[in-house]
Amino acid sequence: MTAFTKRSLLQIAGWSTLAATAALVGCGKKEEAPVAAAPAPAPAVVASAASAPSAEPLKIAFAYVGPVGDGGWSFAHDRGRKEAQAEFGDKIVTSYVESVPESADAERVIRDMVGQGNKLIFGTTFGYMDTMMKVAADSKDVKFEHATGFKTAENMRTYDSRTYEGAYMAGIVAGGMTKTNSLGVVGSVPIPEVLRNINAFTLGAQSVNPKVQTKVVWVNAWFAPPKETEAAQSLLNSGVDVLFQNTDSSAVLQAAEKAGKYAFGWDSDMSAYGPKAHLASAVINWGPYYKSAIKQALDGSWKTGQAWWGVKEGAIDLVSIAADVPDDTKKRVDEIKAGLKDGSFSIWKGPIMDNTGKELIGKDVVADDKFLGGLKTYVKGVEGKVPGG
Predict the structure, then answer these.
(1) Domains, the chain, ranges and CATH?
(2) pTM to 2 decimals?
(3) For the chain, how long is the longest CA-to-CA vector?
(4) Do 113 and 122 contact (CB within 8 A), yes or no?
């Protein structure tokens, strides 16, 4: 793969307290969040000639762009961390710092993680990429993993998830449930990652309901519940009866619940936030990738590169489909899921047109990852123009 999505983040409210939090990161505390100070070194133990010292656990740290309680992106990453901790037990100790902005604070936090003795560090948003490259160059004995980026080094690689696969399956459900044929998406920031998801959602809906049209409102933030709520309400006011999102909180689903309309969960299962409105949740399971990466770090097989995982690898799914979704729609979702898993189905197979009538993908052509990584326009059926495009 030659390119990855560029996930960037506008500043999250409440980051003014991060400096104190970052300074207190305790990357040596097993399983839990940061501790007040690094643990004091244990007294030296002199090994006898007949015994060898036991291996120290691998120390691993995670930097999250949002709060772990966002119910979405950072919550999903932390769930993956916990799965890895449970998998490897006392062979590893993990820790994290949440709500780390894409700024100079990120470098300070990541350097502190190195200073705390972590030998594997995961950064979970695009905006950490250049910072991690800089720190990696100064810390050759540490392995770095960067989510959603495209730059690599000898001791830094990238990883991502094919979220558009979950969006397509959600679109199938939306297309089967809408009464107005008008769908709405609350978008975060207009980058290829988000455009893929909006377009895939629309393509999925059109596959079962060609009359579908999609409206988009951008909030220019990943986690901004008030803005997400406002955007969702404006879409509902325009006649939309099914909402989708590419933002990190549950605000969109809750707005639909209040209005008596439908919506989806994103990144994690959000069904509890709006049980009457919830149609399904398009989720990311970071656990398989984190367990694979950690295993490689433990056994010495880790090497740089790029990874992009989806349904095939167990990283993407559509879960908790509502009981009132018709059986034929559920069956179609299952068929697509199976096709994505075994490679017999491609979402990005032409002909696919953009919303100006220009051909994006020719008939029977399957788009490659380079095309997907540079996607800058809407497909047919999505209203308006991409901001800045």
Answers:
(1) 15-37+55-161+286-310 (3.40.50.2300), 163-284+314-373 (3.40.50.2300)
(2) 0.83
(3) 79
(4) no
The torsion angles phi and psi of 35, rounded to 5 degrees, stand at -105, 170
Mean pLDDT for 94-123 is: 96
Residues 6 or more apart whose Cβ sits within 8 Å of residue 23: 112
pLDDT tens per residue, range 327-343:
999 999 999 999 999 99
Measured CA to CA, the distance from residue 248 to residue 187 in angstroms comes to 10
pLDDT in tens, 51-87: 445 589 999 999 999 899 888 999 999 999 999 999 9
Query: 333 is written with which tokens?
Result: 């979702």
User: What number of CA atoms fall less than 13 Å from residue 139's CA on the CB side?
Assistant: 23
Token pair for 351: 């002909």
Look-up of token digits 């820790």 = 95
- Residue carrying structure tokens 């769930």: 79
| pLDDT(47) > 50 | no
DSSP 153-185: BTTEEEEEE-HHHHHHHHHHHHHHH-SSSEEEE
